[in-house]
Records
---
Amino acid sequence: MDGPVHRGRPGLASVGPVNQPETSALDAFLAVFESLPRQGPGSRACTAQALAMCEGLPPEPDIVDLGCGGGAQTLDLAELTGGVVVAVDNHAPFAELLTRRAAARGCSDRVRPHIADMTDPGLPAERADLVWSEGALYNIGLAAALPRCHRLLRPGGYLAFTDAVWRTQDIPDAVRELFADYPTMGTVADVLALLPAHGFELIGHFPVPDDAWWDEFYTPMRARITELRANGSFGAEGLAALDRCDAEIDLFSEHGHRYGYEFFVARRPS
């Protein structure tokens, strides 16, 4: 993920060892998130479903994955398309993790980590057949992100992204606080209205299912939190950060029907 690793998280930065008594909240978050299969809700099945909506891609498409995090979806894209994926993230340890994972999966030649900010990734205009972003565009807001994605795409290219959306009107204060760093968060209808305003035509969309929150995100997160508590390496600030991670999981268990992620697929017209 580019910037915060998930809703309500502080920005990422290089940190030292996490086994010190006065480990900071940021260190604790990184100790959790850098170990997870994914840094946000998602699954290979969701990635494949969205990819199948991108009809007519070249046999080996040029792909840009914005805010790639540890690159679970990056690797899936490389394997599912046979294309080259430029994986953009501003957190160097994620680039290193992705490099190791790509080597283990045998696709190092088609995965190119690129350490840069999403706001200015330093990539040529109209260089991609497909721009991908799972749970990251919110860092700069969709209204700012969509023109940047449009610029990266060749005419006829596709944009696929997930974004957090409200699914009901009655949102408890605790849930709104979780998404306090995303003040422009809206509904599916709000996102659909933004796409044509920024030069995209909608191809389709679907909700990210509950199992994509649990299987590779919240379930391993809770296991990691338990492990970190047991090793006794955190002081009060670090333990408070772990408490916030636990509270986020509990909120989704109780209120996940009120909010969620939606996968959107759109196209820059030819």
---
Amino acid sequence: MATITASVYTSHVPAIGAAMDLGKTQEDYWKPLFAGYEFSRRWMRDHKPDVVLLVYNDHATAFSLDMIPTFAIGTAAHEGYGARPVPVVKGHPELASHIAQSVIQQDFDLTIVNKMDVDHGLTVPLSLMCGEQDPATGSWPCPVIPFAVNVVQYPVPSGQRCFNLGQAIRKAIESYDEDLKVQIWGTGGMSHQLQGARAGLINREWDNRWLDQLINDPVACARIPHIEYVREAGSEGIELVMWLIARGAMSDIQEGRVVGPAPKLRHRFYHVPASNTAVGHAILENS
């Protein structure tokens, strides 16, 4: 059967992608940030998965404010891409369709997208973890299943809902009848606000406390209400609920409780600022 071997958590700040695309990664401003991903790139080469299920939010590329699904899974063999000069994302239609079937039968409503254009929310994490790729001759190291979550227009899903969804996704993957190593990535966040009187808000203390809890007490982390994200992490800090999908998919979580050995923390990194945003990152391996 397929198994989830690890989960990856990272911000997907668009300016990070621009820095890579414009060759600015070694400039004084950007160098400390990219140094935080050097271990991650080595780890990715040594732990190459067969498939990545990448949880992110769309930024008016595949969906507009006219229609925003709460959860959407891309099932195409090839996914498009936004403005960044990166290779087209190759999907895994068979596994994606199986996940959709299984998760819907577990009472989660997914929107199935047979043609999805992806944007920096998905491609920046790939570049951070896999390195820069030539759009003409390069390719990502494995197929990627895009999983889009609405954290743009309210109402958005709760952290608990996302945590529970992660458990349903793990059950789906583990029931797939092929020997695949799958990683699940949760992206977005950390604290940031892009508009209004608090534009530029970054809350280091809260971010790191939240990351502690995500790693060590995910059940409590899933219970954090929306108002706390908005108050402490800014209006866009709500993107962190997507990390809870990846955490809920880890093998120590069963029926909403911690029942097994904790995953191994392989790497943790935090940096401010990147543009006007806090950047968080972690890698967990299943025991």
